[in-house]
Inverse folding.
């Protein structure tokens, strides 16, 4: 919408996603300490709806969006236009905080932990919860994106806004590739249930809000990596790895860098998990 370059867009998306995964801590504190899960979901759903309306208006009203591109020349958005669109985005991020932290614990709290059958169903609930998010992502990244490309961003944002009126959940952006998606499913579902089970009853919402925290940190780190890669690869007037024309860049190098960092992260996890198993075994002997 704002006619930003690839690096700037990717960096801003990473920062926004990081913020979206950080705000659940706010919702968790309010839910566990003050409002309860139901009212926290209700209030933050309204906040989310306001953000979606703002974003829809910024993509629909001519005064709130930059002029159309003339060939390869795309005028940048004005500071006021940036302010409106990013205000909508970060109000949405705030709205996510109350929804994302409360919905899992609100649903899981309906199961009786003293009943073995209910405990099994609770485990299935987390799987179905994350499956629903993935299903929403498929719709948002296919049908909604097609509408945005062919009918305009205003209608593309307007449709999710309409659905927001009809539900308390939201369409959340997730990785689209199978292997990355599978890895995220295994990690997210396990972490979500782990934090929920290990939290005391009075802090269940806060516990489930901690599980997306690693997404927040990862996205902030992603923004930092993008900035550093762009800085070092554009020295001497070079185009860099991620220019606006990706055909002239080296995304392959960038993805190799990410793969290497992921491998190091996996090694760190294996070492930490092995140490935890050893300590648990040692405590059992004592």
């Amino acid at each position: 919408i704002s006619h930003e370059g690839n690096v700037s867009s990717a960096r801003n998306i990473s920062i926004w996603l990081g913020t979206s995964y950080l705000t659940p801590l706010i919702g968790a504190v309010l839910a566990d300490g003050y409002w309860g899960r139901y009212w926290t979901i209700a209030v933050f759903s309204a906040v989310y709806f306001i953000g979606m309306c703002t974003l829809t208006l910024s993509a629909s009203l001519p005064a709130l969006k930059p002029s159309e591109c003339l060939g390869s020349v795309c005028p940048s958005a004005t500071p006021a236009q940036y302010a409106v669109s990013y205000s909508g985005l970060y109000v949405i991020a705030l709205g996510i905080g109350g929804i994302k932290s409360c919905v899992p614990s609100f649903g899981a709290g309906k199961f009786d932990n003293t009943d073995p059958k209910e405990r099994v169903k609770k485990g299935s609930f987390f799987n179905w919860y994350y499956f629903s998010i993935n299903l929403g992502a498929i719709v948002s990244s296919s049908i909604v994106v097609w509408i945005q490309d062919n009918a305009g961003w205003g209608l593309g944002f307007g449709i999710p806004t309409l659905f927001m009126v009809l539900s308390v959940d939201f369409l959340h952006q997730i990785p689209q590739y199978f292997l990355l998606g599978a890895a995220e499913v295994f990690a997210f579902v396990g972490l979500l249930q782990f934090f929920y089970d290990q939290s005391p009853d009075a802090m269940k919402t806060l516990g489930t809000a901690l599980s997306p925290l690693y997404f927040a940190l990862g996205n902030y780190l992603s923004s930092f990596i993008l900035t550093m890669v762009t800085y070092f690869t554009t020295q001497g007037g070079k185009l860099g790895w991620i220019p606006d024309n990706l055909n002239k860049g080296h995304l392959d190098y960038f993805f190799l860098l990410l793969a290497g960092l992921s491998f190091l992260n996996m090694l760190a996890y294996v070492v930490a998990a092995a140490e935890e198993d050893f300590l648990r075994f040692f405590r059992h002997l004592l």
